[in-house]
């Protein structure tokens, strides 16, 4: 979970889930992230409220009491276990590629909220999020994460960006002699919004399929486990 703090109060983003392994089925080495979606779809409002109260809010309160008031982005990585959610790690950044689908869901101007966080007073501000789902598919270079191949000409960006509900975020790109080329391991983040996770993923993958360069790598199973879980729970009369 990712939230903003002004040193006292918390404004939380919706939940998100990322996919770290390079290969489908969560195989292969870890990466910076090969995809993400929001909401996470793996726990509900009760768990969300519990993590917000018992982890995020208590962390901010304890830091203030110790004289180390924290303002900014607080990212808590959560692992779901048989005995409940457990904290895996803390970061003080938005996270990538989690940030992209989260930002796509923000309905109000984020800049004044960030400024209020830095100044230490949210002044009654709210972080409003769309009820739509958003998804992100990372397009990476051949050889990533060990030794990515760079300098490959990227094709199809205009077609991808024109797809319904899609936004393409650049990560490892650069202009060379008037052409856009790969310049890193994770090259592009193809994101889309939709009325459901399936719609958002379908849009993101349709846009990703418009883009190409030699050796382009992507995972084709982002969100699929959550979709299966949702279908199973719907059959059992419960929700994700």
Provide a descriptive summary of the structure in words.
The protein is an alpha+beta fold. It starts with a strand and ends in a 5-residue tail after the last helix. A 5-stranded antiparallel sheet has the order 3-6-9-13-10. A 4-stranded antiparallel sheet has the order 2-1-7-8, sandwiched between helices. The mean pLDDT is 93. A hairpin with a 3-residue loop joins β4 and β5 (27-30). The protein is built from 6 helices and 13 strands.
List the helices and strands and how they pair.
Elements: E1 2-6, E2 10-12, E3 17-18, E4 21-23, E5 27-30, E6 35-38, H1 45-65, E7 71-81, E8 84-91, H2 99-105, H3 110-119, E9 133-140, H4 157-161, E10 166-170, E11 173-176, E12 179-182, E13 186-194, H5 197-208, H6 224-235
Antiparallel strand pairs: 1-2, 1-7, 3-6, 4-5, 6-9, 7-8, 9-13, 10-13, 11-12
Structural class: alpha+beta
The 3D shape can be described as globular
Q: Number of DSSP strands?
A: 13
Bin the helical content.
25-40%
How many DSSP helices? 6
Estimate the mean pLDDT confidence.
93
Oligomer: single chain
Strand arrangement within the widest β-sheet reads: 3-6-9-13-10
Distance between the termini: 17 Å
Strand content: 25-35%
Which radius of gyration do the C-alpha atoms yield? 19 Å
Summarize the main sheet. 5 strands, antiparallel
Q: Give me the strand/helix succession.
A: EEEEEEHEEHHEHEEEEHH
């Amino acid at each position: 979970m990712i939230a903003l703090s002004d040193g006292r109060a918390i404004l939380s983003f919706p939940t998100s889930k990322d996919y770290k392994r390079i290969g489908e089925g969560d195989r292969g080495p870890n990466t910076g992230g090969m995809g993400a979606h929001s909401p996470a779809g793996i726990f509900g409002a009760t768990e969300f409220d519990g993590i917000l109260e018992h982890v995020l809010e208590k962390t901010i309160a304890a830091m203030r009491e110790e004289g180390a008031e924290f303002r900014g982005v607080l990212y808590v990585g959560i692992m779901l276990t048989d005995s409940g959610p457990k904290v895996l790690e803390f970061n003080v950044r938005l996270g990538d590629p989690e940030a992209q689908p989260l930002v796509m869901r923000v309905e109000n101007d984020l800049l004044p909220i960030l400024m209020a966080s830095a100044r230490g007073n949210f002044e009654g501000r709210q972080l409003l999020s769309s009820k739509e789902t958003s998804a992100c598919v990372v397009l990476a270079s051949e050889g990533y994460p060990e030794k990515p191949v760079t300098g490959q000409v990227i094709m199809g960006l205009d077609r991808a960006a024109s797809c319904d509900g899609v936004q393409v975020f650049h990560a490892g790109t650069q202009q060379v002699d008037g052409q856009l080329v790969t310049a890193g391991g994770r090259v592009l983040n193809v994101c889309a919004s939709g009325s459901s996770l399936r719609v958002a993923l379908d849009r993101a993958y349709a846009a990703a399929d418009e883009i190409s360069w030699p050796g382009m790598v992507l995972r084709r199973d982002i969100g699929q486990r959550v979709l299966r879980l949702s279908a199973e729970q719907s059959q059992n009369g419960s929700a994700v």
